[in-house]
Amino acid sequence: MTTRTKIKDVLKGNLIDQTVNVKGWVRTFRNNSFIAINDGSSINNIQAVVNFENTNPDTLKRITPGACVGVTGKLVASQGKGQTVEIIVSDIEIYGDAESDVTKPNSYPLQPKAHSLEFLREIAHLRFRTNTFGAIFRVRHTLAYAIHKFFNEKGFVYMHTPIITSSDAEGAGEMFRVSTLDPKNPPLTETGEIDYKQDFFGKSTNLTVSGQLEGELAAMAFSDVYTFGPTFRAENSNTARHLAEFWMIEPEMAFYDLKDNMALAEEMLKYVITYALDKNKEDIEFLSQRLLDEEKNKPQTERSELNLLEKLNFCLGNEFAKITYTEAIDILRESNHNKKKKFQYIIEGWGADLQSEHERYLVEKHFKKPVILTDYPKDIKSFYMRMNDDGKTVAAMDILFPGIGEIIGGSQREERLEKLESRMKDMHIPTEEMSWYLDTRRFGACPHAGFGLGFERLVLFVTGMTNIRDVIAFPRTPNNCEF
RNA sequence: UCCUUCUUAGCUCAGCUGGUUAGAGCACAUGACUGUUAAUCAUGGGGUCCCUGGUUCGAGCCCAGGAGAGGGAGCCA
What we know:
- It contains 14 helices and 16 strands.
- It is α+β, with helices and mostly antiparallel strands.
- It has 2 domains: 7-113, CATH 2.40.50.140; 131-174 and 209-470, BirA Bifunctional Protein, domain 2.
């Protein structure tokens, strides 16, 4: 009995002349002889050669795209040109058929031809079996692993912050309500409001929009912590960069100021991208080529200057540009783009929030590399960000990536109790409910900082994909919760 | 949520100024071939033209409403 070998390992070729067994799903069956089998361990298929003259014709008919097969045979150097090794099949087992006749109901929808990303999104449960999505989700895995590896090597503690929260004061966005009350007949208070005292938790609860506040509590004990978990926003955002359910990495570090925070973020991004380039070289090369092929149909002016691999390497080889909000406003105001009124929103003066066209100009036209923007006006940022000495700006930072926009948002936190409380009052955030959070400022407060990295946006950048729905297995967006 | 474009065969698309029986490539089926590389060659089947209503002698095409998708914007990660 030969034990199964993963196709990735068979392709290494050091098992040559040995009998091997592989199991996987048929991609194509050419010439009644050559089965391309993929088991997800690699972007590459193994070619299994059957002798159709002494194989049962009924078995041959069942070798169709999508079918699951196991083959046993001798691994030999390939006679053909497209691959170095192949398996001469001595035994084949069909584990699961896949109907290939499209005139029949429930036929396998993936055909040996190119499909549009939009079509594959409708069959997200099967799209893992394509080259593109195989590559994307292997890269996604590697990036997730690299993030844990990076923080672990730096001595960070991985915190699991709660998914269900009662805090509605984080201000990061609209929340999904969590309730076990009967939606048709909820208990009411005397004033006619829904009585959440009778709900499961005895109060109104929601899905988390951020683990940051809980992360800060932990950082006041472990010094360096991070979270990596699902996050939920009930915003009615219909863009290629937003999801209702996404994964976020939120490190929080005691004794870090904004500069330390920025340096950690840049180091982490470069670390994980380097790691993925090393571990998933073939996948990223495939995705790079996919992007080139896609852009062939576009006019010259819309094509990228760098291919995906070059773009990633360029990002690794250069320091991120670091400028303050105030400097960014000056650059934008003095730009020909602004003077020629090419912006939809003309930069008038200091204080306005930057529109994505401005961010894109800074990243893609002016600096042509990732940009860290710092020290935003306090009025356009969150209550917990540390007030700068000028009294006008806060110690915030956003990292902007080409093609993606904001990939990281972070800040040094306001550790001074009085200043934090007065900010909360200004922004109508109830300090009583947030007493547990304010305790960190009452007992052994220290300067600290942290940031949030949108994991899917990182995956977008590394895979060169342009729609966030294509880098998460089963995307949740307004009006869409399939699978 | 706003702006905009689209929806025709399993997939990707064409369809002229509103005109008779709606096309192509790929996929699929059948056959041939048998060292292929999304195999090739031949033959064949395959349509609720997104839905509802309207205009018209006549609607895939025009009008109104609806649904779904793409791109852009806002909010953000």
